[in-house]
Structures are given as structure tokens and as C-alpha cells.
């Protein structure tokens, strides 16, 4: 009689929820495993967390670590303490982490030290920029992971260059697209664009939260000036991330931006309403990782206010462009004159990534033909 594989599915922050949801739904259908949903609590506002659980059909987490906000060390250490206790109380057979937030690396570290196999979904992405906290999280997580699921060939190449055994790597495609496809009908029916009084193809969506863009008054002030100039040409809707809101207020920029003609500042949106806005937008201005991928899938021109991206396939195949803040107005003009990049959908970005992950876990499980869950890893 084969023992059921107990899988911990870790989520912490907004970009994690749409990565774990398709996996949760796929794994729940399998009789050979059981899933414990662990929320570390890094994001806790209703519209940064709960809204995603209800939008994506996720049940309340089995375990909530309640770490909240804090410095990198505080957040990482508190997740480690909470998750270690959870593993000791009820040892999983596999710790499945996604993305590149602090909980990703914290839970990978805890599991690795308890000799619990670690699987990383969205492995192999590299920006090459260690000033980004996420890059440190990616490097450490991938060093520790026993199973590395990559979204694109650049991920495989990065891992190979770092000496990761090919046996540990399976290219599964992009899980974000699974969420989009799962929710597509609801996204199309959401009505958010109409509620905000926007014309199809007649506005841009803005999201910004990278510390390099929003944490200092100089860069954020310059961004605000550029956005106001863009809004004179094309209406902007900007769901403001809490980090960004806090800084706009602290630097005295909030009112200037909120009162500028053509600018709508709104609260962070749930997944369905946000994607409804993205689908009908003329273009997107962002520094988000996930939004670069969603716009590539949808063929919507995306202007990314960063000097690097860990998702280079969105540049080479997709609709993404890296720009400096000072280039925003001409880049928008260029798109409005009909020169926007629409690109194509990368291979395996097809809505079937969760199924490939499930098949890979099964394959690894069956490969070792053992009853003990510890034997999952090659
Ligand atoms: C985190 C991730 C980042 C990801 C982003 C997605 C790390 C290192 N950073 O950055 O990779 O791109 O989430 O959104 O893991 N806050 C609230 N309410 C919340 C959450 C945060 O008000 O529900 C405020 C707090 O003031 C907090 C600040 O936002 O200090 C930053 O939150 P934090 O989770 O530390 O970092 P993010 O910028 O959200
Ligand atoms: N998103 C959302 N509402 C918003 C802004 C973003 O639902 O108001 C979604 C977006 O569609 C994407 C994810 O959040 O799926 C990306 O998260 P975020 O930009 O916070 O993090 P990153 O991807 O940069 O780590």
C-alpha cells in the first residue's frame, strides 16, 4: 500500500496566489497526495491576499504563519521559525515553493535542513542584478531545490551554467497562464473596465512597486512627472501597491498624481478585475514580474521600468520592452503611433503547466518505486 505524498504548498504574497491556485486545484484531484496550504502572511491586506483566495477558488489556508511586514531578515527569519515548527509538528514529504519572494527562500531553507525534498516552481530565472532581493532569493532557492521546474529555456540554461544536474530540472511552462485560462470567462465578464469608465483600447494600466522605483523621492518624483505627461495623451488607471502608496504619501506626491487630468488612482485590485483591465488596455506600464508575462501571453505592449528582467523571453518573443523612466513618454508615443510590439506566446505557456507539474511529481515518485515519500528526489 503506497503512502500518500504530503505536499506543503507555500504562498506569501500577491504574486504567489495565482501560481499556487492551479497547482492546488490539480493536486487536489490526485489520490496519491494530500496538500497542506501554508500562507506565511507576508501580504495581509484584504485586497493583497483574501481577494485572491476568493477569486481563485482557494480555501482558507491550513496554516497561517502571520509574519506580516518587516525587514528582509525579520520576514525571512519569522517564516523560518513558523515553518520549521509546522514541519516538526507535521512533516511534509515535499515542500513546494513558487516564485522569488522571501518565503520562497525561507521555506526552502527550513525544508532542506530538515531533509525534506524541495521543489521550486519558476526556477532558473535570473536578472543578473543582485541589488534585487528577489535575485538573492532565486539563487539560494535554486541551490537548495531538489526539483526545479522552469518556465522557459533560459531558465534551463541558467541552471545548467550554475552546475545544476539536468536530472533535477523539468521545463513545465508558465503557471501564471494556467490561472489566466482557468479564470478567463470570469475575467472577460468582470465589467471592471466599464465600472472605471474606460474605453476598450483607450487607456493604459500602471503598476509599480519595485524599491528601485518607489522607495526614494527622486526616482518616484520623476516617475510621477512622466506619468502625468503620459496621462495627457492616454488615460491611466493605476492600482497602487501599498508600498508605493505609502511612499507617494510620504514624499508629498500623492495629491499631485491623484489630481492630474487623465489619472485614476485606485486600490490594488483582485486578480479577476485587474486582468479585465489588462486585457482591454492599449498598453501597460509596470515593474512587476508577473505582469510582464501576462502581457506577453495576451500580446499587449508592455513598458517595463527596469534595467534588467529575469524574464528575457518576454523581450525576445513577447511584447515587453525595458525602458528608463525618462523614456516613458516617447515609448508611449511610439506605441500610440502603431509601433507597439505584440510578439508571440512562448512555448509551453499554454494553461497546462499544473498538469505537467503533477505528471513530473508522479514520474519522480514512480521512478524510485519506493513507498517512502523521502525517496521522491533523484
Ligand atoms: C513583495 C516581494 C516582491 C513582490 C511583491 C509583490 C519580497 C522580498 N518582496 O514586495 O518580490 O514583487 O511582494 O507585490 O518578498 N504592505 C501593506 N499591506 C500588505 C502588504 C504590504 O500595507 O498586505 C506594505 C507594508 O508597509 C510593507 C510594504 O507594503 O512594509 C512592503 O511589503 P513587503 O511584503 O515587504 O514587500 P513588497 O514590496 O510587497
Ligand atoms: N495583480 C492584481 N492586482 C493588482 C496588481 C497586480 O491582481 O492590482 C496581479 C497581476 O495580474 C499578476 C500579479 O498580481 O498576476 C503580479 O504581482 P505583483 O506585480 O505584485 O508581483 P511580481 O510579479 O512583481 O512579483
From TrEMBL:
InterPro entries, A to Z: UDP_GlcNAc_Epimerase_2_dom, WecB-like
Domain UDP-N-acetylglucosamine 2-epimerase: 26-360
Entry keyword Heme: no
Keywords associated with the record: Isomerase
Pfam families assigned to the protein according to its UniProt record, in alphabetical order: Epimerase_2
Keyword Transcription regulation: no
Domain of life (superkingdom): Bacteria
Sequence similarity: Belongs to the UDP-N-acetylglucosamine 2-epimerase family.
PANTHER family per the UniProt record, alphabetical: UDP-N-ACETYLGLUCOSAMINE 2-EPIMERASE (PTHR43174)
Annotated protein name in UniProt: UDP-N-acetylglucosamine 2-epimerase (Non-hydrolyzing)
Origin organism lineage: Bacteria, Pseudomonadati, Pseudomonadota, Gammaproteobacteria, Lysobacterales
Gene behind the chain: wecB
